[in-house]
Amino acid sequence: MKDSLSRKIALALMLATFAAPAALAHAGTDAGEELAARWTAVSASSEKSRADIDRYNDTEEGRSELLSELQQKDGVNDDWELNRRVETIMTNLTAAIGVIDPTIYEKPYQYFINTRDGFNAFCTLGHIMSINQGIFENLDDDSEIAVVLAHEMGHGQSNHPVDAARQALSVKAAAQAAGGSLDTLIAAALVKNQYTKPMEWAADNLAFAYITHSYYNPGATAAVWQRVIDRYGENTSPFLAALSNHPASKDRRDNYERKIESYANGHVSVTTDGIVMVDTQPFCIPAAANGMSSHERAYLVEGNLAAAFHNGHSQSAAYADGATVMLSAQPIMTCVSGDEEAWALADRLNQIKSGRK
Question: Which of 22, 25, 36 has its CA nearest to residue 178?
Answer without folding.
Answer: 36
